[in-house]
Design a protein that fits this description.
There is one protein chain. With 104 residues, the protein is of the alpha+beta class. Helix content is 35%, strand content 19%. It has four helices and three strands. A hairpin with a 2-residue loop joins strand 1 and strand 2. The longest helix is centred in the middle third of the chain and has 13 residues.
Length: 104
């Protein structure tokens, strides 16, 4: 499978994971910093959280891992939780901004 198609499928799956405190998925919130494919069947996701002290960080990271593993052709998934650069609302896409009532 082509990397661009695989990336689209991973993004589709990531869009099903929600921050439980914010009614917007993690992709639209801009919490995903990078999706890398070191090998065709291996995915590395670098992501952050809206707050470093999130009490359910482990659960969100596990959800991300689990949904990436659902993508056909993925045999290995790693999720790296990073806090540099820090997340800000500026990372949200237009969909999230509209959903949360931010001015565009």
């Amino acid at each position: 499978m082509a990397e661009s198609l695989m990336k689209d499928l991973v993004i589709e799956k990531l869009s099903t994971v929600y921050d439980p405190e914010i009614p917007v998925n993690i992709w639209d919130l801009g919490l995903i910093y990078d999706i890398a494919f070191p090998k065709p069947s291996e995915v590395i996701v670098s992501m952050t959280l809206t707050a470093p002290g999130c009490p359910i960080a482990d659960e969100i990271v596990q959800q991300v891992h689990d949904v990436v593993m659902e993508v056909e052709g993925v045999e290995s998934a790693t999720v790296n939780l990073v806090f540099e650069p820090a997340w800000t609302p500026d990372r949200m896409n237009e969909t999230a901004r509209l959903e949360l009532g931010y001015d565009i």
